[in-house]
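Re: the request from the purification team.
They wanted to know what the chain is likely to look like in 3D before they choose a buffer screen. I agreed to run a prediction and write the result into the notebook, where they can find it.
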Amino acid sequence: MEETISLKEVFAVLRKRLSMILLITIIATATSGIISFFFITPIYQSSTQLLVNQSKSENQIIDPNQIKSNLELINTYNVIMKSPAILEKVIDELDLNKTASQLNSQISVSAVNNSQVISVTVEDPDSAKAAKIANTVAAVFQKEIATIMNVDNVSILSPAELVSNPSPVKPNPVLNMAIAFVVGLMIGVGLAFLLEYLDNTVKTEQDLEKLLGLPVLGAVGEINVGEGASAPGRSRKQKLGSESLES
């Protein structure tokens, strides 16, 4: 026989375990907030932009074929910019205590909306160092690309600047706490239904009907004897005791 659960029973389970669900949700949210604010190192981001354009000439006529060639070269430039040939020179110039692989993981290079503009983004715990690394990568690449590929079509469009009050890009405490709230709520609800499923005790007539598959014909109510009322056996004993004293 298939067992079905009604919406009323669902709400009954949730109401029964509401305190546990709220406790798990609050603990998960608070833990996420504490970790985000006090234990995760904030990371700052800084970006600079490079322009891949035509080489300067006397006629200054825009050549569509040259533009198409520049766009095709951007993917190559992106790889070269993150190569050890560029990054090692950046490390030497800034005297960074890290390897080219570690610096590579901090840098992301992408074309802006399929244009001739390349965006170089650097993430670092130090906002000033992030801006300095971004500008140095752009400057070193602009200098070295002329030797590597024998071209002179890269110029710095917008250098990275250090703002007065930089905001970290990660962690995002509000987002982390929102995710923890949802996860904690899901865990609490799931645990509530799991505990209800594992609870095999019989508490009501309905539980007995489900267990035995038989209808309940009657029930014996609980009889409470008040403090003022005395049981028959006790009254009889007291009466016999008083007769003995009289004799």
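For the purification team: The radius of gyration is 38 Å.
Please add any questions underneath this entry.
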